[in-house]
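Exercise 7. Predict the structure of Aminopeptidase P family protein from Ancylobacter pratisalsi.
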Amino acid sequence: MFEARFQTFADSAAPSLGTARLKLLRAELERRGLDGLIVPRADAHQNEYVPPCDERLAWLTGFTGSAGVALVLREEAAIVVDGRYTLQAANQVDTQSFDVVPLAETSPERWLETHLPAGARFGYDPWLVTASGLSKLQKAATAVDAVLVAVDSNPIDAVWEDRPPVPTGPVELRDPALAGESTEDKLARIRAALAEQRLDALVLSDPHAVAWTFNIRGSDVAFTPLPLSWAIIPREGQASLFIDGCKLSNATRHALAHHAEILEPVLLDRAIDLAASGGAVVRLDQATAPALFAARIEAAGGKVSNGPSPIALMQAAKNEAELSGMRAAHLRDGAALARFLAWFDAEAYKGGLTEIDAVAALETFRRDTGALKDVSFPTIAGAGPNGAIVHYRVSEATNRPIRAGELFLIDSGAQYEDGTTDVTRTLIVGEPSAEMRDRFTRVLKGHIAIARAVFPAGTSGAQLDPLARQFLWAAGLDFDHGTGHGVGAYLSVHEGPARISKLGTVPLARGMVLSNEPGYYKTGAFGIRLENLLIVAEPPAIEGAEKPLLGFETLTLAPFDRRVIDLALLTPDEISWLDAYHARVRAEIGPLVDGPTRAWLEAATAPLAG
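Solution. The predicted structure, encoded as tokens:
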């Protein structure tokens, strides 16, 4: 009945292959006169999701998480992962060949300082390491009198016999009604920013920035509509777009040629040399630009300006057309969610449902809209103790029944042409315990505090983050992830530079879209996360206000599970907010559903005091 077409549940990890592949790699390194190699989980753009041909870390080690780095020496090897993936790595990697090293205990550079032999020649791929990453590696190598060597081709590619091909998904032009701003106007804004910062050129290494600038979308990676590409935008003169020509139809090429010279990616190195000639100051995005670019700019006589791309803030502050599209996407998504939640309530109590069943059902309800392009990330569907694993991804090996008396956490999102969604609800099957109600309500109170926040312009996400944690802190509890991340408009579901977290130093600005997702996780028992997307907007006028103020408009439209709320912990103002939110969900989603779903929605959104 239900099918997941955009997600798979097979466990692709192959620990048993690690030893043989490590042997192949070491033989290749010896052939090249290298004593070691760093293997990051990265592509040349530092994308969150990478194409299969760039999953070198997974091929070598079996580890399939989204962040990690392997360090291979002649006699030993390690994989360094953060706290999200320590258990996963231990299960997926051959621990006889690779030591699993928690990032909290030691960094890759520190590991090298204690394991790299003096005089060793340690290799790195300059396409896969940023300038700041290279600086850290250089410091570690210098500390032990070793030498860093930039490889001219990746050694893994030489021994990866069945490596998938480079993706060549077709590029599509963004509908002007959805983009809300022409490429010509965007380029003018970018050039104005370059002039203001006294920069001669900008190299775009982040394909999200390229897609936004040139109003294009693609299908080269899963979950994000990206065309892998590069661009160079000079302060004066024509821009250059570097993209595989086979991705472009004649009509698309013709449209793009009005704004940029269209070139093959193999010409990028030479173009960077030309852009840097004559002592030009060239901005590289410090987060995504390969170290190779900085080396070429300096060799060509240019000056490297490392810093954030000026496009990042432009892209983050959505225009009215983009916000209208996001609202339309969330209405459509809200109706699909209502159908899923009604179905879940009717079926879960019968027993027999599993995590995979829920993932497949929700994707199916979204596909039934006729507008789904992809999911925006692999759905996190954790029953009982699996819900306590923050970045849990269900596989056939871990698939768990959804049992009575347990919480079920489902975090999911969709890519529609007019917008990107991301929503989390935590549901109960049967009766929740008093502890579940207490923790759920404390998380809900934090969620409401963020949603209701009014703050002066210039406020950062770090300043707002404690609002979401205060009620957990009062009980000696907390959660280890950020409260919110930026979200793109039919782009990445995780978009910078703004976020609501302890590290969120970028001031929030009108038009930004952020998540609001406090949580609580009890290891081995249950997890709770409640997430809506928000637009940074102007709040209702406050009489006597002495400063410009900002607030939030909630985008996501889906009921919270009333059965897990402890009303005694909510204030009258919080109850009023929740009743008003549910009334809005009923009013806006109600006309889009009928039959059993409509009846379920009426009950799920009834006033709490009623």
